[in-house]
Amino acid sequence: MSSLEVDEVLFSYLAITTYAISFVLIRVDNGVQRPVYYVSKSLHEAEIRYLPLENAILAVVHATRKLPNYFQAHTVVVLTQYPIKAVLRSADYTGRVAKWGTILGAFDVRYMPRTSVKGQVLADLVAKFAEGPEEIKTRPGGMDEKSVGLISAQPISSWTVYVNGAVNQQGSGVGLVLISLEEVIIEKSLRLGFSVTNNEAEYEALLIGMAMVNKVGGKTVEIFLDSGLVMGQVRGELEARDTRMQEYLSQVRCIQANFEFFKITHVPRSGNAHADSLATLATSSAQNLPRMIMVEDLGTPTQGTTETLQVNQISSARSWMDPIILFLEKDILPEDKSEAEKIRRKALRFWLSEDKKLYKRSYSGPYLLCVRPEASEDLLEELHEGICGSHTGGRSLSHRAITQGYWWPGMQKEAQEYVRKCDQCQRFAPNIH
């Protein structure tokens, strides 16, 4: 193992297998990667059913628990192909992912794409020799290293297929989006003329997508779908008990044998919106007629005939929100080390939307829109003496602002000061003798 210098930046590699995870910490010495420490963990019970992305985050959390001194004294750059940073800052994940994000926020951990496999070899070796559970030492039949989807595997150029099935009162249909090796996008929407369940529609979409790639001669394919049941049965993690599910699974196995590389990955429904819209389109089609739908982009709103006045927006002064927005958007921290540490810790409690609006995270309610200092007084005025204002007290006024979905630091103190300055409250408030 190699000794470290003060404030030296460390790098790390991850390896994820079916029954084990490993984390290797290295330092760069004159262009040579030297190992510092490594940890590994065997997965048990529910951990085996985690998604590979969740296991990647778990590997980093496990390393912070085993090697806290390294994470507290150094900046650690995690080299991985998984979008860990995007997941931890996303608003779509709760539960254990949100908990892990809070743990990792206490350390200076950064994430970068993996460009070298020098230290990755050591991480793969540690994960390979980690013992798995005794009751499931054998891998399910028909699954090889390619279908497990190890992080250490080299990227393979393959067809990318997004599939989804939809069942509603109007009928059932499937949607497919195929991306060829030349990045040509093929879209397909099929309406099913027979009665199916949601899981059967997902299987139909999967089979049609595999058959289309096989028909055009594709030998490598990666399929994305949002059905956890279908993915678990195809991977062998779940048992197909229903007779109809067993028949679908056997058909998948037959077509899968024609591919040299086959991988199936679960994505959230938001990540499969394209295929989902095509499947919904099939169920809403009323007639069996060939049709072509033109989809174009409208960059600007349609201008009316009435004249409008041009309003120039004056940029507001810097506030407490700007450093947090800058860090969440561009990973830029202040030069002062102590101030940078404060911003990094505060940023865990906030989320930046796509339209660059800052929200305060809430674990028991909706996210709260952050208000700039120059807009807080106008908001208090509207809530206190506006159309629905009732001239409430300071504590009630700040609580009402929260229930309306707004937040800013020191809001309770500002609300109390505003009530003291309200002329009507001072004139008509009950006198206490």
Properties at a glance:
single chain, 433 residues, 16 helices, Nucleotidyltransferase, domain 5, Endonuclease III, domain 1, 37% helix
Helix share of residues?
25-40%
Could you name the ranges where pLDDT drops below 50 across 5 or more consecutive residues?
134-155
Give the SSE order as H and E letters.
EEEHHEHHEHHEEEHEHHEHHHEEEHHEHH
CATH topology annotation of the largest domain: Nucleotidyltransferase, domain 5
Helix-strand makeup class: alpha/beta
**Per DSSP, what share of the residues sits in E-state strands of 2 or more residues?**
15-25%
* Average predicted confidence as pLDDT: 79
Distance between the termini: 77 Å
CATH class placement of the largest domain = Alpha Beta
- Going by CATH, the architecture of the largest domain would be 2-Layer Sandwich
